[in-house]
Amino acid sequence: MNRSFEILDVTLRDGSHAMRHSFTEKQVEETARGLDKAGVSYFEVSHGDGLGGSSLQYGFSKVNELKLIEAASSVCSRAKVSVLLIPGIGIKDDLQDAVKAGAKMVRVATHVTEADVAAQHINLGRELGLKTVGFLMMAHMASTAKIVEQAKLFESYGAEIIYVTDSAGYMLPNEVTERIKALKENVSCEIGFHGHNNLSMAMANTIAAVEAGASYIDGSLRALGAGSGNTQTEVMVGVFERLGYNTGINLYDILDVANDVVAPFMQRPQEITGSSLILGYSGVYSSFLLHTQSAAQKFNVDERDILVELGKMKAIGGQEDLIFDVAQRLALNV
Ligand SMILES: C[C@H](O)CC(=O)C(=O)O
Ligand SMILES: [Mn+2]
């Protein structure tokens, strides 16, 4: 039986945020081997902020991501490695190097209103023969009409799949349904959805996305990802089987890699805490969580106040330095 949709696992990329970008080759190799055995078709490996993300602004990687991509690719017999690239953070050379290391898919990620910065990278993805995806981040910050407009740009550049990305874990199922349906009606690419669980909506939103026609869905093992984490891959396999879909993934095998490989290296349980809930409530980029915790500690202010303020300012990915500015202002009461 053909798969009803593809589950794309992002443990080794979104999980990099939760791991403070400290993945080792051994962790990556063992996770990749397990994902491959379980029947996952695509999984992502990069710094949490994509190729070239290792920096003072985002956090330095313990191990160069090209080595991690190589390690993952070397143990896969069926699964293909995807990489994330934010234009300007990652450059064309990074993508070419990632292909040499074994990448077979690129997801070119932009803020939801900035698809126009992705043309060159999407073109390059196609030229290199990669499965090429446009990934619209912080999708809650734009109207459905705007998302359709931006998706049409991605499509015109050659993207084969377009993602609605709930980076802040802010969206509710009806909002996901509306956006995915509109994309299905207005572009001919396949549609994907990437969720975060800050308001405990990741699974409900994922079901809404699939029922509205999404054919690529992101998840991570043990939910390892930014903020409260992503839709949990192994739980998705169970839930969608119960709903009558064919995920093509073996439930016991995916449980084994989640529990025997990923759980032991997690730095903390992936739960909804006060601060990670506020990310969703205020519409703040999930990967701001750990930076906010560091800033709150440094300036002795409440993490939640920083996040609420960032939400009001409509801060977006790439503005991580604002977190420290806000914490300092709160500390000085100015
Ligand atoms: C660079 C981001 O972490 C991409 C992502 O996973 C999201 O926006 O969510
Ligand atoms: Mn994410």
TrEMBL record:
GO terms for biological process: L-leucine biosynthetic process. Coiled coil: none annotated. PROSITE patterns: PYR_CT. CDD domains: DRE_TIM_HOA. It catalyses: (S)-4-hydroxy-2-oxohexanoate = propanal + pyruvate; (S)-4-hydroxy-2-oxopentanoate = acetaldehyde + pyruvate. It holds the Pfam family HMGL-like. Substrate binds at R13, D14, S167, H194, Y285. One of its GO terms (molecular function) is 4-hydroxy-2-oxovalerate aldolase activity. Gene3D superfamilies: 1.10.8.60, Aldolase class I (3.20.20.70). Residues 5-255 form the Pyruvate carboxyltransferase domain. Mn(2+) binds at D14, H194, H196. The keyword RNA-binding does not apply. It comes from the Bacteria. This is 4-hydroxy-2-oxovalerate aldolase. Keywords: Aromatic hydrocarbons catabolism, Lyase, Manganese, Metal-binding. InterPro entries: 2-IPM_HCS-like, 4OH_2_O-val_aldolase, Aldolase_TIM, DmpG_comm, DRE_TIM_HOA, PYR_CT. The active site is at H17 (proton acceptor). Its EC number is 4.1.3.39. Belongs to the 4-hydroxy-2-oxovalerate aldolase family. The record marks R13 as: Transition state stabilizer.
